[in-house]
Structures are given as structure tokens and as C-alpha cells.
Amino acid sequence: MNPSARLAFEESALPHLDSLYRVARRLCGDPSEAEDLVQDALVRAYRFWGGFEPGTNVRAWLFTILRNTFYSELRRRVRARAHVSELSNLGEPHGYTGAAPQELPSPESAVESKASADRVHQALAEIPEDYRLAVVLADMEGFSYKEIAEVVGCPIGTVMSRLYRGRRQLHERLKASSASPPAPAAEAPVSLDAYRKRGHG
Amino acid sequence: MTQRSHQEAPSDSLVALLQPYIDGELDEAMSAAALARLDADPELRLIVEEQRAARSALRAAPRESAPAGLRARLLLDLDAVDHERAVVAAPTRSGWPRARALLRGAVVMMPAAAAAALLFVALRAGAPALEADAPAPSLAAVDPATDDAADRASPVLPPLDGAPRVLGAAPGAAPTGVTLVGLGDAAAPSEVEAIEYELGGGRILELRRPALRASREGDEIRYRGDLYQLRRDPRGRAVVVFIDGVVERTLVVAALDPRQIAPGSEQRLLLELGHRLRHGSAR
What we know:
A: Rna Polymerase Sigma Factor, Chain: A, Arc Repressor Mutant, subunit A, 2 domains
């Protein structure tokens, strides 16, 4: 790739690195896996940079690649897990299941989980991925409905439905974790102009 | 208006009205219509409050930044992609310019080949048979199978008796001499530390990060009693990785002086540096 294309890619993609990492973190849970996911997604984006249409929404394009990379990796892991499961059924010595041992929460994480941010992240981790992605993109990263629809590849009506269900499940889990979520701030609905500006930021 | 239980999910059409109202994506007329609907239905008001509470909780959560080490690693990966493309693109030169270059090479090489043939004949006739040539230095100057690779010193080893010189050390920043074109001066402190050494005519980059995961890539060998992993990065550069307590240390050859370092001995150079870093004589 010529130096100007490289520069253009870096100028377009790297400002979204933090946002990509945050979303990857919510998708993967594990910080190292989130780093790997962002790295893989951006290298993939760089390989296909020639196919990006200038003037279109680069943020939505990058997050679409992030999402696709995440699901490719997830599918690969599911297949690997199924293979391990098949092997274990072939007759391992008793006691060995072939599955990775369950990780118990450490005392440190138990203490940390009392923190409000951890409660929110924990509650997020418990809701289905499709809902989680919609909620994280909308409420943590400020994506418009149109952008989310582009990233997840579904109609805007489905985005609204996922947001509704995702927030509702999140609210239930936060309530169940014994401390109620912060009281709803007296928010005035955002104006349509503000939304349009946000959507194309 | 029909009252519904709070557990009952609103219809799709209601969601299509409420969600954009909550997110401020309705125009004034639709927003007023939604508000009128809410005024008349306490159940709906409760739903809206819940949705807003969840959204506020998410917005209030602290915003993490990507580790600065991620940025540095990504830029190295982009370098590797550029390098890979340059290698693929190079042989595509074709046609007359290529044929002309071949002819030019043949013209230059013919006298040299003739001289070599004459020399060969003269030697065969008048001199005793040559000893078998020393093996050409291989890419892996270190045999992974040996228990102590240092005992198999290659004849092309660089002088390694001097202490490595640290050229630059900047937490989270790219070291000098490494192509990280997108890394600005304002790189945030990172859990990845990059250091550059000079040793035996080579410049070597070291990346340190917490040894969170056991990396099992490459060949594992024992050098002077310690374990190391040997591999090549996507650019074909020699890489040596070892765990030092809770730190994963990765050494990669950033540049070699061909006058001092013979091709194929870079892994040995990295292993020697690794040994000195491990045992505290490098810095």
C-alpha cells in the first residue's frame, strides 16, 4: 500500500481505537482477547482499505469489521470446543471431561465487583450478544440507530427492538445485583439536529 | 387505553414509538404524540424510566482507553502488511524491462563465469583437493534440539564480549529506528515497554509486557540452561521470547550490520542478549 493510503488509513482508523477497544472489551470480556480482536479487525480493515468508499461512514465500516471478526472467531472457537467435546466422548480416563476448568472468581474480583462500573459491566456481560452490542454502541459510544443498523446488518426496527430488550434486561440485572442503577437523570430528549450531527460524527 | 402488566412486553409499534422518543430521534410532532401517550399510561412511563435508567448507568460507566501497547503492536502489524505486499508486488515486473535487465546481467556475469571456470580448472590440475566447504550459515544458527545451544558456536558469530548498550527506552513509545509512523509524541503510559539495544553490530528491540498468557508459538529451546521460544515475525525477522518472572520479554532484530553480523546468526545474537538480560549483565 502506498504511503498516502497508509497515512489516510491511520488518520481515519486510529482515532476510533479507544472506542473499538471498549466495544471489543464488552464483547470479549477478557482484556487480552479484546486487544487481539481490535488488532485483528484493524489489520483486516487495512487489507481491505482499498475497498472503502471515501465519504462514507468510516466508523460504521470499522465496527462492522470488528463485529464480523468477533463472530468469525466465536464460530472458530465453537467448532474447536465441539471437536474437544467429541474427543472427550471417545473415552477419556474418568474425571477428565476435555473442557477447560471453570474459573472461580478471585477474592479481588469479588471485592471489585461491588464497584458500580463493574456491576454495569457484569450486567452487560450477562445479556445476549446481539442486545449487548446494540446497547453498547448506542449508550456507551453514541451511535445513531442508522449506524447501528449498518454495523449489525439489520433494519432499524430490529435495532430499536434490541435496544429495548437489552436495556430492559440490563435494568433487571442491575436491580437484582442489590443496588439500583443510578436514578434516571432529568434528560430532555436530544433534538433531531443533535442526533443528525452525532450520527455522522 | 388498555392497561398492560409491567411484565408484558409492549408491541413492536409501541417500541417503535418509545425507543426513538427515549433516544431523542423523533421530530417535534411525533415527540409530542409520544408524550401524550405517556401522560395517559403510567405503565408506559415506567417502561421509559427503566430504559432511561439503564441508559444512564451505561453512560455513567468510566470510559476506558485502549492500552498504548496495542497501538504500537497494531502499527507493527501494518508495517508487516506493507512489507508483505511489497514482496508480492516485486516479481510482477514483467515484459521487456525485465528481459533487458536479464540480458544486462548476463553480459556482466559471462566474463566472471569464464574466469571462475578457468580458476577451477587450474586448481583441479595443480592443487590438492579442497576440503569440503564449511556449511553455509543456516537461518537457525541454533539447533533447537540441543540442550545447550551455546556449545555449538557458529563460525560466523559476532563478537559478543561487550555489554549491550541501551540506545533508547521509552515506556509505551516506539523506539528510535523502528517504523511506527503513526505513533505520536503523546503516547500514553503503557504496560508495554519498548527498549532498543545495540549488541555485536545489531540493533535489537525489546518489548516487555506482563506475562498474562503463556505464548506457545515457535520452537522452544534451552540456551545456557534457560528456556526460550524462537520464531519469525511476519516480516521474517528473528524473534526470541522468554518469560522473566512476571514479564514476557520479546526480542526482535531491528537492524543488522552485515559487516559484523553474518546472515543466519541473528537468533544466536538474540539468545545471547536474552541470557544477559536474564542474568542482569545487560543494563
